[in-house]
Amino acid sequence: MTNARAIQTRNILLLMLGQGLSGSLVSLLTLATPLCAQNLIASSQALSQNLVTLPVSATVLGAFLMVYNASIFMVKWGRKKAFIFASGLGMFASILAMIAIILHSFWLFCIATLLLGGFSAFNQYYRFAASEAFLDSRINDIHAKNKATALVVGGGILGAILGPFLASFGANFFITPPFDVAFFGSFFFAFLLCFCALISSIFLELASIQTTKKETQKDTQNMLWILLKDKSFVLGTLACAFGFSLMTLLMNAAPLAMHHTHFDLNENQTVLQWHFIAMYLPSIFLGFWLNKSTPQCIIFYGILAYILSIVIAITGVGFYSFFFALLFLGIGWAFVFNGGTFLLNAMPTSAYKLKAQGLNSFLTYLCNFIASMSVGFVLHSSEGWVMLNLISAAALACFTLLFYTLHIMHK
């Protein structure tokens, strides 16, 4: 028993580290990708400024294309091998991005960010793998699983601090011959993050999910219909998809909005750093608060934080308006996204559940992709930032009404 508990503790710590390292890459890309794209477009007279958000959207598209396939890999190979594969993909994509920057190739850079998005898709599965960190009977304890999930998601606080720092520090790290190119260092650090994620994955020892041929065949034929009748899946997926896409919409827009209002890279870094801290720090405390609240209540608190974020954003475009708007945006994501994940944890453990996790992540990234693509059409000036927040307010009202209507109907 003592050895099993040691393995469980090590698994949770390694999953927290994996979440933090992959989250560091996501936050690094959030800051570095649009600004690097802007540099590449500026160096070419043939490209329109309207393409500036294309590499960011390529990242989301890559994640969208990979995210369901990631669950299939996990069914066939297991979580550990799938995480190792993802790290190798991220290392290759980082090298491709560095080559694109040296060659000043915008389109090659888009391909690299597409592949980096494929790596980032696996970031979604650390939270689900948390319940498999338990190797004894406690795996059936929903509170223990939710606490492990919250702690693993909370590991993303490493990404909150490390990612924006590496993006900013790496931006000018190689501004010397023979490179003399901005942001090369940012993607060099992206390579190192993927390499460290590879090493951490090697030491995982997760419980395998036992399935039968009969169960798998039945799930394949009836999965969608079964899931649509499952309250935990419907409400959990709705919360995860909306919570993540609203955050993506405003988070991806913020660096460009701050650039339009003449804030420098360090100020951009500060705002994003605290935004990512606000995303992940509450998760650590949620793990100890779960026995006193339901997932639906946690999601409601997240909605309140989203409202505060939007109200602050539309009142002005000063530094502290951006700072506190992104801070409450991060807190809102922490509560809504974790609440949705806790609902999914209530589903029984099986290969069917793995496919449900894959479908949940697929729908979440589909909404993310739509949100990310929407940024470039609106954000051409600081006024676009206010418009995005007004659109977000309307979307938030619709989500709240739909979520709690479905909750009452499923009682």
Detailed description of the structure:
This protein is 80% helix and 0% strand. It is built from 15 helices and no strands. It has helices at 2-42, 54-77, 79-103, 106-121, 126-129, 142-154, 157-171, 184-202, 213-228, 231-260, 265-286, 295-314, 319-345, 351-378, 382-409. The model has no long low-confidence stretch (mean pLDDT 83).
Entry keywords:
411 residues, mainly alpha, Growth Hormone, Chain: A, 15 helices, globular
Please tell me how large the radius of gyration is.
20 Å
Largest β-sheet summary: none
Helicity, in percent?
over 70%
Secondary-structure element order, N to C: HHHHHHHHHHHHHHH
The quaternary state of the protein chains shown equals single chain
Task: Give the CA-CA distance, first to last residue.
Answer: 39 Å
Mean pLDDT: 83
The structural class is mainly alpha
From the 3D structure, determine the CATH topology. Answer: Growth Hormone, Chain: A
CATH homologous superfamily heading: MFS general substrate transporter like domains
Q: In one word, what is the shape? A: globular
Number of domains: 1
State the total count of DSSP E strands: 0
What ranges have pLDDT less than 50 throughout 5 or more consecutive residues? none
Topology:
Layout: H1 2-42, H2 54-77, H3 79-103, H4 106-121, H5 126-129, H6 142-154, H7 157-171, H8 184-202, H9 213-228, H10 231-260, H11 265-286, H12 295-314, H13 319-345, H14 351-378, H15 382-409
Helix pairs in contact: 1-2, 1-4, 1-6, 1-7, 1-8, 1-10, 2-3, 2-4, 2-14, 3-4, 3-8, 6-11, 6-13, 7-8, 7-11, 9-14, 10-11, 10-13, 10-14, 10-15, 11-13, 12-13, 12-15
